[in-house]
Design a protein that fits this description.
The protein is an alpha/beta fold. It has nine helices and 17 strands. It binds zinc ion (ZN).
Length: 381
């Protein structure tokens, strides 16, 4: 495929991500996907035949966005939103028009609205998200970065892409649409996970290669985007997003129309390769005793962030795959020589339960015990 930023076909595949992306929904293709590094601009991205529309169907019907206030509490969440407020308030007045693209449940927008910003529209493709945001008294539009210029007609002063861009495969359409919707001299706030820092984190192996993230971005890539689409960077920095534990980089783009040239950097490729190597070593240390004992294993919680781990269990005695989500039940994975389908928790019999999710491991363990299962449980955490 073409590089989502520079359009070059010239890239190296650095990791095989999966056999197929069916875990994201039945509309996704039954073909392999890779992590690739562009040889022209250095972007690290998911090399897949899946389209933006395929991913969009996942975000419309399959994905559940995190609710920060529920998951991380008021203090942590407000602290995060204060960080965004402190950056954008230098560039936009209270009556400025803001479009928050993939604003999910409208949590940030409610916070900004309470701080006096009175013209915000929450944009999201997911109906539940939009309904919830509307119930908070916010203005909403159910659409995405691909079709927002068909739904929205007024130009805005600022577009917010807060932990959104890394989910967008069709970067070109997104930037063309933003260009049409943004006033001359308008601003775009972008914050994304920092691919250069994955390797420094103590997170679960492969955590940052979740299938949801199709771009693994760095400040270099953001500078290339500014040059390509005619923006000047008027603020930038690094931030540790404690709600959900993401080392991040942010920029504020100012629309000038003056385009520059794209440059190459191999930093992202090298750092992501180091991260992949670290992940392989850490999962091997966890799996080795389980493989050597030959005990029957029940892998629990098969989702966009954990399906990547299944391959590592190829030589283990995996007897079942379990997930609560009925949309995932019935999906089959090849583990070693066996083809195993994801099943409902009610089907669990004998075996050691391996909880794959790190962030949710405590609540999953509680659910398992509450349901009366006495199996031995191990977690990656
Ligand atoms: Zn490129």
């Amino acid at each position: 495929m073409q590089c989502p930023i520079c359009g070059s076909e010239n890239h190296d595949r650095i990791f095989r991500l999966c056999d197929n992306m069916k875990i994201l929904g039945k509309s996704l293709p039954d073909k392999e996907a890779y992590v690739a590094a562009c040889n022209e601009c250095g972007l690290v991205f998911t090399d897949t035949i899946a389209t933006q529309e395929n991913f969009l169907s996942y975000y419309k019907y399959g994905a559940v966005s995190p609710k920060y206030y529920d998951m991380f509490g008021t203090d942590e969440t407000n602290h995060y939103f204060e960080h965004i407020l402190s950056i954008i308030s230098s560039f936009i007045a209270n009556n400025g028009k803001i479009y928050d693209v993939a604003g999910a449940w409208g949590e940030l927008d409610k916070f900004l609205s309470d701080k006096g910003f009175n013209d915000i529209i929450v944009i999201d493709p997911n109906e539940n998200c939009i309904k919830t945001a509307k119930n908070k008294g916010l203005s909403v539009s159910q659409c995405s970065s691909s079709d927002m210029n068909e739904r929205l007609h007024e130009k805005c002063d600022m577009i917010i892409l807060n932990h959104t861009l890394e989910h967008i495969l069709d970067v070109k359409s997104a930037f063309e649409n933003m260009d049409r919707l943004l006033k001359d001299n308008g601003y775009i706030f972008i914050e994304v996970p920092n691919a250069l820092s994955y390797v420094d984190e103590d997170a679960a192996p492969f955590n940052f290669l979740t299938y949801e993230h199709v771009l693994h971005l760095t400040m270099h890539d953001l500078e290339n985007l500014a040059a390509l689409y005619g923006y000047e960077i008027c603020a930038k920095g690094e931030y540790y997003k404690k709600v959900s534990n993401y080392p991040s980089v942010y920029v504020v783009f100012n629309k000038t129309g003056r385009k520059g040239t794209i440059t190459y950097s191999d930093l992202a490729k090298n750092k992501v390769m180091q991260y992949i190597d670290k992940s392989k070593k850490s999962i091997e240390a966890f799996i080795k005793p389980l493989r050597e004992s030959g005990e029957p294993l029940i892998l629990w919680g098969i989702g966009a962030s954990t399906a990547i781990l299944i391959d590592s269990f190829a030589d283990c005695n995996v007897v079942a795959l379990i997930d609560r989500n009925p949309m995932r039940q019935g999906l089959q994975f090849e583990i070693g020589d066996n083809l195993i389908a994801v099943q409902d928790p009610d089907t669990v019999k004998k075996g050691t339960i391996v909880i794959l999710s790190i962030p949710y491991h405590a609540s999953i363990e509680k659910q398992i015990r509450d349901s009366g299962l006495k199996n031995k449980i191990v977690t990656l955490a």
